[in-house]
Amino acid sequence: MARPPALSPLPQERGEGAQRHRGETFITSRDNALLKDLRRLAQDSDAHRKQGRVWVEGEHLCSAALARGWRPALGVFSTSYWPLALAGIAQAAIKNVVIDDGLMKGISDLPSPAPLAFVIDLPPAPALLPDAPTVVLDRVQDAGNVGSILRSAAAFGFAQVAALKGTALPWSPKVLRAGMGAHFGLRLVEGLAADDLAALQVPLLVTSSHEGELLHRAHLPWPCAWVMGHEGQGVSPELAARAAMALRIAQPGGEESLNVAAAAAICLHASAAGRA
Are 173 and 43 in contact (CB under 8 A)? Predict the structure, then answer.
């Protein structure tokens, strides 16, 4: 399980269009500095690296973070939602801001933005755990695929995800939404080079469309590190050469290949079933 992060100072929420009441701050101006920071967090894929925090939008993701013991540094609520938040979820954050409904909708790039969000401070970049069951993402570029793989990793008992350079950033807003809360129970290590995987002491398993042992007949090691490759190119030759096993998924229907997220779900489930 990912450990709750240490808290760091937030951007100053005072300034133009900000008024403090019983402890919460009300923001009514689109020129407010905090509002601009929140918009960047919600829309820019690498803003979390610059600010050291992430935008967690909507009741499901906020509840998932709280369930895993993460304490938000800031609760963000629309004016119309604020009376509901006061009855419960607003108590979870260290500070709260209440934003005019029209301005709140402008923070997110979603067609139907949620009326509540958390800002959560990220922990320092973790090192790879050498013995942890791991999923390695080798240049998986689609945010939806990365988020789906994180969900499968969490569901099937893989504690760590190692994202190589060229992979969609795990803490980016689109991956966070696609992960549906899986982030908060995983150890996420991003920006790695292939050589960094030498720290892993578990066998690497790679998949191929046409080569290797059939997955349903294989005896899979545990713990292990499954490598999921680029949507078009697959696993890099460098990583394939390091693998302890190469496996393929039986496809009696005759399709050329599976989507990487679908393949990951099948492979990770096979490992979980093998343990059982």
Answer: yes
The pair of three-digit structure tokens given for residue 225, joined into one six-digit string: 């590190």
Domain count, the chain: 2
| CATH number assigned to the domain comprising residue 25 | 3.30.1330.30
pLDDT at 22: 52
pLDDT at 225: 98
Per-residue pLDDT, 7 = 37
* pTM (two decimals): 0.89
Is residue 148 within a helix (H) or strand (E), and if so which, with residue range? helix 143-155
List the domain range (segments joined by +) for residue 202: 134-275
Residues 238 and 109 in one domain: no
Sheet of 187-192: strands edge to edge?
Answer: 187-192, 160-164, 134-138, 225-229, 204-207, 245-248, 213-214
Instruction: Give the CA count within 13 Å in the CB-facing half-sphere of 18.
Output: 18
Q: Which residues pair with 55 in a beta bridge?
A: 119
Q: In this predicted structure, what is the pLDDT of residue 209?
A: 67
The list of the chain residues with pLDDT below 70 reads: 1-23, 209, 256
> b/e map of 98-107 (b: 16 or more CB within 10 Å)?
bbbeebbeeb
